[in-house]
């Protein structure tokens, strides 16, 4: 299928892209949002952005066999685009984009076998990426942006300043061994590349995914960190802060409770 962007949409999408960057959205987020709108544009052709009706969008979305999470991403992107276009006078009317409620996701932490397989990668970059995700709970975009200057130390030990979503920062305590592995990369970005000086988040995720068993993603290492951190502390708020979540409701979705603990809780109540 052609990947062209219809001329009637191209200029408007480019302007919206600039506004997203101006609002501090990450490169990965902007690419994802604009890609969905380009797909929408191709589906709506020959209609221009100001000619799309609520019924047209509903038909476009209704025919798609997306997962709930993908459908939510599409609808959110379209709503953001049309809200901006209407508020800035680029379109006189905007279609109604229904909200999609994302259901609670089950935690899916990487098991020991998957973790060890990732650690046995012959690429030392991948070995360190796996450790940062599993031992510090970093997202792929956060791993991509790790810089040796982000290492700090205080009386309690070593920590890493993590550059999270929306430009937010958090401090995550790490082991001396992991800190040493980061330092060994030399000054600057630990994973240098062409995306603002470092590897792109997508490429980091792809490299780690190749080193893991089929079906196990880099994000599963973050779930592993969350589950193990909660098992060690029983402190949901602490795990929330370590992961950089705005709400503990999100953190709960990352924590897998071992079957042995569920059994013990059930039998203890009997």
Provide tags for this entry:
single chain; 270 residues; mainly alpha; DNA polymerase, domain 1; hpI Integrase, Chain A; globular
Explain how this protein is built.
With 270 residues, this protein is mainly alpha-helical. It folds into two domains: 7-87, DNA polymerase, domain 1 (Orthogonal Bundle); 112-263, Orthogonal Bundle (hpI Integrase, Chain A), CATH 1.10.443.10. The protein contains 13 helices and four strands. The protein has helices at residues 7-22, 27-44, 54-63, 68-87, 112-119, 124-136, 140-144, 176-183, 201-211, 218-233, 236-243, 248-252, 259-268; strands at 151-154, 157-163, 169-174, 192-195. A hairpin with a 5-residue loop joins β2 and β3 (169-174). The radius of gyration is 22 Å and the shape is globular. The mean pLDDT is 92.
Distance between the termini: 60 Å
Strand content: 5-15%
Portion of residues within helices: 40-55%
How many strands, which pairing sense, and closed or not: the largest β-sheet? Answer: 3 strands, antiparallel
As for the number of domains, it is 2
* Gyration radius, rounded: 22 Å
Uncertain spans, ≥5 residues at pLDDT below 50? Answer: none
Elements, N to C (H/E): HHHHHHHEEEHEHHHHH
Instruction: Let me know the number of strands.
Output: 4
CATH topology of the largest domain: hpI Integrase, Chain A
Summarize the SSE layout with pairings:
Layout: H1 7-22, H2 27-44, H3 54-63, H4 68-87, H5 112-119, H6 124-136, H7 140-144, E1 151-154, E2 157-163, E3 169-174, H8 176-183, E4 192-195, H9 201-211, H10 218-233, H11 236-243, H12 248-252, H13 259-268
Antiparallel strand pairs: 1-2, 2-3
Helix pairs in contact: 1-2, 2-4, 6-9, 6-10, 10-11
């Amino acid at each position: 299928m052609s990947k062209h962007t219809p001329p009637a949409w191209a200029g408007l999408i480019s302007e919206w892209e600039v506004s997203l960057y101006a609002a501090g959205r990450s490169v990965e987020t902007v690419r994802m949002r604009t890609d969905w709108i380009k797909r929408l544009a191709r589906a709506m052709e020959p209609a221009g952005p100001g000619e799309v009706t609520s019924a047209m969008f509903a038909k476009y979305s209704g025919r798609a066999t997306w997962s709930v999470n993908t459908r939510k991403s599409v609808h959110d992107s379209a709503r953001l685009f049309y809200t901006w276009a209407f508020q800035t006078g680029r379109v006189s009317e905007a279609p109604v984009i229904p909200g999609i409620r994302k259901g609670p996701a089950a935690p899916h932490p990487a098991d020991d076998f998957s973790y060890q397989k990732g650690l046995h990668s012959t690429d030392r970059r991948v070995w360190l990426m796996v450790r940062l995700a599993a031992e510090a709970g970093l997202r792929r975009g956060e791993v991509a942006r790790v810089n040796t200057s982000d290492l700090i130390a205080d009386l309690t030990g070593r920590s890493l300043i993590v550059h999270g979503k929306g430009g937010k920062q958090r401090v995550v305590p790490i082991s001396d061994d992991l800190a040493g592995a980061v330092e060994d990369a030399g000054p600057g970005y630990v994973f240098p590349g062409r995306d603002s000086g470092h590897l792109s988040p997508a490429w980091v995720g792809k490299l780690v995914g190749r080193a893991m068993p089929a079906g196990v993603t880099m994000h599963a290492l973050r779930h592993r960190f969350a589950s193990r951190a909660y098992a060690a502390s029983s402190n949901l708020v602490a795990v929330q802060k370590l992961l950089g979540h705005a709400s503990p409701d999100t953190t709960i979705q990352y924590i897998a409770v071992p079957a042995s603990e569920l059994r013990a809780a059930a039998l203890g109540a009997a």
